Amino acid sequence: MIQIDDLPRDRVDEVGHLTLGPGQERFVATIGEMVTDPLPTRDFHIVRMQGEGVGFFKIDRNYAPTHDFAEAQGWGLRGVLVGAQYQGRGLGRALLAALPGYLAARYPGQRLYYLTVNCRNTVARDAYVKAGWHDMGGLYHGGQSGPQHILRLRLT
After folding, report:
1. Beta 3-6 vs 75-82: how paired, if at all?
2. 41: closest CA among 10, 16, 62, 66?
3. Shortest CA distance to 121 belongs to which of 102, 140, 103?
4. Helices (H), 35-109
5. Residue 115 contacts by C-beta under 8 Å, 6 or more apart in sequence?
6. What average pLDDT does this structure show over 61-68?
7. I want to staple 55 with a disulfide (CB 3.0 to 4.6 A). Which of 26, 47, 60, 65 is the partner?
8. CA gyration radius for the chain?
9. What H or E segment, with its residue span, contains residue 12?
10. Which has the closest alpha carbon to 82: 70, 101, 98, 66?
């Protein structure tokens, strides 16, 4: 159903058409803002359906030094977005189901990932937990839109 690939920075136009749904700007930056992230330790990834870019996310390989709750070897999942024009088709669930296998293959040896999700974004939090992410029980207060749940995924 979906395919996940690296997205080289010189090809970010492949996701430039992705839009946010109503109210999502409280929880995630626009695609235009996300793809201008200058940090080289943040890898871009594209989610495709039948060859078309329908989603985007970043892996932050320098996550732990900037998030005191993360274990030293933990990396971060950031900026997960399924374009509003593609929502309601199960693509978010498909992405979360495919993500552990993709991460294990793309980053062999890396087994620990973190993310934060806004406390008001209960739909996203529930989706991550259902997909195997563990709610650590604490809150992160460094987000721009208020407190966030801390979730962890440990790959086996």
Report:
1. unpaired
2. 62
3. 140
4. 91-106
5. 76, 77, 78, 80, 128, 133, 151, 153
6. 96
7. 47
8. 14
9. none
10. 98
Residue indicated by tokens 């940090």: 39
| Cβ atoms of 55 and 81 closer than 8 Å | yes
CA 67/CA 75 separation, integer angstroms: 10
In this prediction the pTM is 0.95
Rounded Cα gap, residues 47 and 142, in angstroms: 27
Q: Which residues, listed in sequence order, are joined to residue 152 by a DSSP beta bridge?
A: 114, 134
* Domain of residue 13, CATH code: 3.40.630.30
As for how many domains the chain has, the answer is 1
- Residue range 82-118, pLDDT digits in tens: 999 999 999 999 999 999 999 999 999 999 999 999 9
Token pair belonging to 153: 């995924």
- Whole domain around residue 22: which residue ranges? 3-154
Residue whose token pair is 């309601």: 88
